[in-house]
Amino acid sequence: MRLAVLICAVLLAGCTATAPDAPLTTEQLLLKPLYKMTPAEADRYIAHMQAAEPDLRKRIAAIGRQNIGQPYVLNLLGEYPYQIHDQLPMFSLAESDCVVFSEHTYAMALSRNWEEFFWMLQRIRYKDGIVGVATRNHYTEQDWNIHNGWLVTDISAELAGANVATYELTVDKTRFLRTRHHTEAEFPIARSTESYVPKEHVREVLAKLDNGDFVNVISTRNGEYWASHVGLVVTAPDGSRHFLNSAAPKVREETFDAFIERVAEREKTQQKEGKPALHLAGFKLLRLNEPVEVPPMKAQPRP
Predict the structure, then answer these.
(1) In which band, very low, low, confident or very high, does the pLDDT at 19 lie, cut at 50, 70 and 90?
(2) What's the CA gap between 169 and 154, in Å, rounded?
(3) What digits encode the pLDDT tens for the residues 98-144?
(4) HSE (CB half, 13 Å, CA atoms) of 205?
(5) What secondary structure does DSSP assign to 38-54, as a single string?
(6) Could you give the C-alpha distances from 50 to 22, 37, 55, in angstroms and in order?
(7) d(CA 278, CA 222)
(8) Which residue from 9, 51, 202, 258 lies 20 to 30 Å from 159 (Cα-Cα)?
């Protein structure tokens, strides 16, 4: 009898020791970095932000800042397990690259719970929300910006005025998918003329931007130009506009001057090391639409 009681006591102690922790209070949750949250905690956080901050722009800024410090990892996401050309997952809370950070921030700000966030994320990542490597918005200017025209609008030429700069962009998506993702899909070669604000003139237009506007960093090398980096505009307490972005080694908020200086230092390092330097040309700036009207996803193709 004593042995049975002892066994029960040991089992009870073991159960007590491994019992799950009590859920965080709302106050504790709001002090926790978003990248350290579990999906269940993120679900609560998204719901709280939707109720506590009715202004979409301010909600985008708050959610983005909750992720400051999130580790940077390049080429983070894929379509697994929906498709198996690789085993990269469809979302990540723990890490981000520049596109993942921006997409996750927008998706959370537009959602009321985890289910809506996951749906919204796919609506932003893919053309018409149809999940697949061939429908993913791989190219910033010709895919992401165009297919998310319901979310943001390119106002670079309008802001730059007489100082506007342009470049020609040619994209062979068929070749890209074949060589980078071992996927066969036919797309016509796409050509476009893209506008941007030269880096020398960006300070002149920053005051016209607001929380949640989308930034494309335009870089050039060997005569070619493209959007090499993206992030979000946030407003500092003093009214100045900052750049919130995910870049090695982690998500940070910085002034545009600080970003330009940081990139210049990287260029100097690349030149000293004898590497082809990637030069900063300027910024393509996209205005968050008001209101944002989310279009429905098209039906997923069936096998």
Answers:
(1) low
(2) 16
(3) 999 999 999 999 999 999 999 999 999 999 999 999 999 999 999 99
(4) 26
(5) -HHHHHHHHHHHHHH--
(6) 24, 17, 9
(7) 9
(8) 258
